[in-house]
Amino acid sequence: MDFALPEDVRMIRDVVARFTAEELVPLEREVIRREAERGFSDLPLIAPEREERLRDISREIGLWGIDVPAALGGQDLGALPKCVVVEQLQNSITPFVLPPESPNLHWLMSCCRGDQVERYLMPYARGEVKSCLALTEPGAGSDAAAISMRAERRDGRWVLNGEKIWISNARQADFMIVVAVTDKEKRSHGGMTAFLVDRGTPGVTIPTVFPMVGERAPYAVSFEDVVLDDAQVLGEVGQAFEPLQKRLGIRRLEIAARCLGLAARCIDLMIEQANSRRTFGAALADRQVVQFWISDSYQELEMCRLLTYRLAWKIDQGVADVRRDAAMAKVQATEMIARVVDRAIQMHGGVGVSKELPLEYIYRVTRLYRIVEGASEVHRWTIARGLLRDGRPDDAQ
Fold this sequence. Notes:
By secondary structure, this protein is an alpha+beta fold.
C-alpha cells in the first residue's frame, strides 16, 4: 500500500494552501462581522464583489474543474485531489467554494440526457450557473425515503405539489434538483423521481429564510401545481434513489474534508498559544494536560484523514457502493472536530469564545455537521444494520 499523495496532488495542495493563506484568511474578520450583523436576513458572508474576485483568482491559478471530466472542460483529477483541495480551503473560515460543487455535478453527469447536457450539465461544469438540491421536507430529514412531495401525471405532463425545507442556496440557484414521489407504493424502491426545475418556474415560491450558524441561510420552498415536461425529468422515472445516495456520499466526503481543514487550523492555533502563553510562571507548552490536548487532537486528525482519503480513493477506483465508507468518514470527522475545537477553546480561555479568534465560529458551525447530510445516529444505525446482515467485510482484499 502506498500512502503518499501523488506529486500532482501535492502541488495542487500547496497552491491551495497559499491561496487560502493569502486570500481567504485576511477576509475572516469581515466574515465574522457580517455573520454577527446578518440577523434574520440571508446576507452572504462574503460580499459579492469579493467573491467574484476570489473566483477570478482561483481560475487564474488553475483551481477550477478539478474533478470535472476533460470532456466537459475540466482537469479530470478525481475525488482525492478535490478532497485535498476542500481540506486546504477549510484552513480558513471564509466560506469560499470552488465551482462546480461536486455532489450535484456527479448526479448531472450520471443522469443528464439529450439537451439536458447543453442546458444544465455543461454550464454547470463550467461554473456559469448554480444549482441546489431540494430534498428535505418538514417530515423527512435524514430519512430521505419518507418524503411526501408528489409528482403526478396530468395530460401528458408532470405536476408537482409539496413543501421543501432547509434548502441551501434556493434563492441563488439557477435550477433545482427536486426529488418527488411518483409512486407512493414503491417510494424508494422505484417510486422516487428527480426533476430539473428552473428559477422562475410558475408555482415555485421561496417564502422563508432560516438564518443559521455560519454561512448557512437555507430556505423553505413551496411547489403549487408546478407543471413540467418530460424533458425536465433527471434520469429515469422512479429511479432517483440510487443516484441520490451516490450524491449524498460525495457530500459526506466533502464534509469530512472540511472537518480535516478546520481541525488543522485549530491545532495550529493551539500550538501557537501553547508556545507563547505563560501562566503561573511557566509556558502552557510545559503543562502535561496541554501536551495531551495537542497530542490527542493531532492523532485524531490523522486517523480521520486516512479514513477520508481512503473513501476518496475508493470513489476514484470506481467502487460502486461507498455508503458505509462515507458514513464512517462523516461520523468520525464531524465528531473529531467537535473534540478538537473544544480543546482549542479551553486552552485559549475567554479569548477562545470571543470574536477575536475564529474558534467560536468553528465551534458553532461544525456542530451543524453532525446533523446535515444524515445525523450521526442514522449513520451508526446504517453501518450496524449492514454488518449485522452481511457480516464483517474483508477490506484487505
